[in-house]
Amino acid sequence: MKTVLAIENVYKSFSTGFIPKKREILKGISFSVAEGEIFGYLGPNGAGKTTTLKSVLGLIFPDEGRIELLGRPHLDPRAKERLGFLPENPYFYDYLTAREFLDFYGQLFGIAKSVRDERTARLLKVVGMDRSSGLQLRKFSRGMLQRVGLAQALINDPAFVILDEPLGGLDPLGRKEIRDIILNLRREGKTVLFTSHILQDIEMICDRVAIIVGGRILSQGKLTDLISEKVLFTEVTVSGVEVHELAALGESLTAQADRVLLKVVEEDKVQDILALVQKKNGRVHSLIPRTQTLEDLFVDMVKPQ
Amino acid sequence: MKKNVSLGLVLVLLALSFMGLKVRIEQIPRPKVPGSSIIYLPSGKYLKMTTFGYSSLAADLIYIWAIQYYGDTAIADRFAYFTHIFDVISELDPKYIDPYRIGALIAIYDNQDIPLALKILDMGLAKNPDQWIFPLEAGHYAQMYAKDHELAKAYFKKAMDIPGAPNVAKRLYAAASFKTSDLKTAWETWLEVYQTAPDDQIKKIASNHLYEVKAAVDTAALKSALEKYRERFGRNPVELRQLVRAGFLSSLPQDLDGKDYLYDPQTGEIKTQVSPWKR
Amino acid sequence: MTIKILKVIALNTFKEAVRDRILYLLLFFAAVSILFARVLALLTVGDRAKIVKDVGLASISLFGALMAILIGTGLVYKEIEKRTIFTIISKPIRRPEFLLGKFFGLVLTLFVMLLAMSLIFLALVFVHTGTIEWTLLAAILFIFLELVLITAVAIFFSCFSTPILSSLFALSFYFIGHFSWSLETFIKKARPGATKVLLQVLYAVLPDLENFNLKTEVVHGLPLSAAHLLYSAAYGIVYTAFILALAVLIFRRRDFV
User: Fold this and answer.
1) What is the nearest CA distance from C23 to chain B, expressed in angstroms?
2) Is B226 contained in some domain?
3) C250 part of contact set with chain B, CB < 8 Å
4) How many domains does chain B contain in total?
5) Phi/psi of residue B132, each to 5°?
6) CB of C256 within 8 A of CB of A60?
7) Residue C203 belongs to a domain
8) Are residues A209 and A256 in the same domain?
9) C54-91: pLDDT as tens digits
10) Looking at the domain assignment, is residue B71 inside a domain?
11) How many domains does chain A have?
12) At what angle do helices B2-26 and C226-252 cross, to 10 degrees?
């Protein structure tokens, strides 16, 4: 399996302030992204996510460590030929129209005019911005900028796409659209690395993740490996049974009208409840096993800090 | 790192190149049209507006530049804009005394232009009526270089009337009055000097001048009488008493010390017994 | 360093600069200033054409410099501040290419603006003298050379300083450059010692912008020395290259936080 991005032992500190005080941001991080996967990079604010990405792109120069991008040293301009990037809170030249904007970036790759025109039109359609193609970027809302930014990241038909918080500021429909685009990219054989705070999204589409806390990678690997499938507890909503009768079997969370919501820890107790309900001719309205979520894992990792 | 070193070398090379070129360019003479750099020095009023309250600093700078400019004798026609430049300086900082005085000095020594010098000093006085130094120096220049005692007298009077003026102004006024044959004023002024003299030396000087003035007045009277005598009698009198007897003089004048004047009947000359300065 | 990439960035920068309103404000004032020369000329007794030429050239020089400084000092700073540079650097472009592209874009803008001002100016001169004087074009060409140098300086400051500070620095540079003679005077009058050495160093390093000022020769109809023109042009180019190299040095290893 080819590695699209390899980060080895990267350190970075900044000296800020009038009397320079050194602040360590990255304290020796290492991880890699394999070809064809969707990789989630998460961590709390200030952990070093954006610093990592900036180091990969050459906006920042690490003090120590090695970064290899698409098989080349990361600062080699040729490494960026098949790379696409969307920054967080994107800012673009607001005096350009959406079409001019994409055309400009296309020119930076040396893409021929006919190909540029075709791709610009197609990508604007894909991100849902084709009707605003002649509008100046200064008039775009944040969500619109995000979409057009994604189009820019794809203008060179990249093999590897890095997205910094691509789903922020979008409504649920927008988030679904972007998620679908990302999934589509994987279907096309591309690799995607993205950072997000919205853990549900990461859970939904990522193959592998890395969690960075306080400048260190605390955990990385396949999602399925990191999160156990063990059931923590089950939430059961029933009716037709008296609350006191259920008390022994589970913790009553709410009791409204005739419905009771129970939190049941032991698996066999669930069976007992089902039997009881059947005996009393009641109804089971819902039965939801709660497994460990990424959020649980995340909170557990972050809390001790 | 390697890239930075090569870039550094390029920098050094370029720096040496342009420094070398600069030296070469300086050797190429460029025509200097006198006054070309200052012809658009706008009038002081407008310049004052643009200096945003730093007008006195601007005045200093222009003054310093002017001194260098006028010191450069290679610039042949540099006095063409003299008035304009000093106009500007005085407009920017009317209370700045030096430029007026030095300007006048430059006008006299470098260009032998006395009216110009006096004009500058007049400007100074107009803007600073309390500065006695301006009319004092103007009177000095008028007297020394233009030999215009009438003008000098007017200046010294101006200087004298300014409160705080040194006593010498009065004395200069008196002396100038004498030179312009305004004997009445000369007498009165020297009398004032005598009466208000702060020390014996000044008193002696005043006294000597009073002697001189009296001698001049008396000599004129005697000569006038002699003239009338000659008209009547066709010859000079033997002694001066004859003028009184003949009725051409009411009395015989004597010098300030009470001594008689010396008279030569052959030539008709009247002289004092002693020089006013050797009494 | 590919010419293609330079062209892309330069043209984009040109598009950006040309949409900056301050450019048109300055162009308006330059036009007013040049036309004001006509008013001044009417008040003069004697050679009217001289005043028109003098004021016209001075206006072009001054407003050109202001354009170069006011736009140049924002050029790089805005990209860093507004973070538009993030997406650019993620493309296969080297940092020096980006910087030089910006420089050429602004030079192109200034060229167009200078052309506009020159046309107004030459038209006015034509009204006064009935001829088109080619020596005036030489003077304007050297004004352009001077503007190119000042652009480089403005962009240099823009790499690490805010637009306000950069503008102050660049303006000071412009004024010191034109009052080089005063520096010479100071050096002659200074007593030998540390101050004198410092002043001499300053004098050697800072350019004498008066070398690009052909106003005196052109307005008084004096001959232009070929040696002076050649060496001055060479000086301008070398000095500009020096400033740009310095800017590249600073820009290269800068962390864009």
Assistant:
1) 23
2) yes
3) no
4) 1
5) -70, -15
6) yes
7) no
8) no
9) 888 888 999 999 999 999 998 888 888 888 888 898 99
10) no
11) 2
12) 160
Residue B112 lies in a domain: no
Backbone angles phi, psi at A123, to 5 degrees: -65, -40
Taking CB atoms and an 8 Å cutoff, what residues of chain B touch C235?
18, 21-22, 25
How many other CB atoms are there within 10 angstroms of residue B96's CB atom? 17
Q: Which chains have 3 or more CB–CB distances shorter than 8 Å to chain C?
A: A, B
Question: pLDDT tens for residues B111-149?
Answer: 888 898 999 899 889 988 999 999 999 999 999 988 999
On the CB side of A17, how many CA atoms lie within 13 Å of its CA? 6
pLDDT in tens, A217-259: 888 888 888 777 677 788 888 888 777 777 777 777 777 777 8
Tokens 């000659």 correspond to B230
With an 8 Å Cβ cutoff, is B18 touching chain C?
yes
ipTM exceeding the 0.90 mark: no
CATH of the domain at A24: 3.40.50.300
Same domain, A149 and A241: no
B15 touches chain C (CB under 8 A): yes
Domain range for A264 is 231-297
Confidence of residue B39 (pLDDT cuts 50, 70, 90): low
Phi, psi angle pair for A5, to nearest 5°: -140, 130
Residue that terminates a domain, selected from A211, A226, A241: A226
CATH code for the domain in which residue A236 is found:
3.30.70
Establish if A11 touches chain C: CB-CB under 8 angstroms: no
Distance from CA of A210 to the nearest CA of C (A): 22
Q: Residue B191 domain-assigned? A: yes
Among the partner residues B3, B14, B33, nearest to C242 by beta-carbon distance: B14
B24 inside 8 A of chain C by CB: yes
> Residue C147's pLDDT is what?
94
Closest CA to A85 of A44, A62, A53: A53
Return the residue of A nearest to C254 by Cα: A60
A208 and A68 fall within a common domain: yes
Widest pairwise Cα distance in chain C: 64
Domain span at C244: 3-172+225-252
Q: Which domain holds residue B253?
A: 181-279
Compare CB distances from C89 to A58, A105, A152 and report the shortest one's residue: A58
- In this structure, is residue A303 part of a structural domain? no
Residue C107 Cα, gap to closest chain B Cα (Å): 21
In a domain, A305, yes or no: no
> Would you state the structure tokens that stand for residue C178, as one six-digit string?
């034109």
Does residue C106 lie in a domain region? yes
| Boundary residue ending a domain (A206, A226, A246) | A226
Helix (H, G, I), strand (E, B) or coil at A13: strand
User: CA–CA separation, A120 vs A157, rounded Å?
Assistant: 11
C17 CB neighbours in chain A (<8 A) are none
Q: How far apart are CA B30 and CA B32, in angstroms?
A: 6
A88 touches chain C (CB under 8 A): no
Best of C99, C209, C216 to disrupt the B interface (most B CBs within 10 Å) is C216
Residue A261 has, within 13 A of its CA and on its CB side, a CA count of: 8
Are C234 and B21 inside 8 Å of each other by CB?
Answer: yes
Confidence (pTM): 0.73
Structure-token pair, residue A10: 């990267």
Q: Which residue of A has its CA nearest to C251?
A: A59
DSSP-based three-state secondary structure for C75:
helix
**Any domain includes C91:** yes
**Residue A156 sits in the same domain as residue A197:** yes
End-to-end CA distance of chain C: 25
Residue A195 in any domain: the answer is yes
Alpha helix positions (H), A93-219: 98-108, 113-126, 142-153, 172-187, 199-205
**Based on the domain organization, do A64 and A191 belong to the same domain?**
yes
Residue A30 domain-assigned? yes
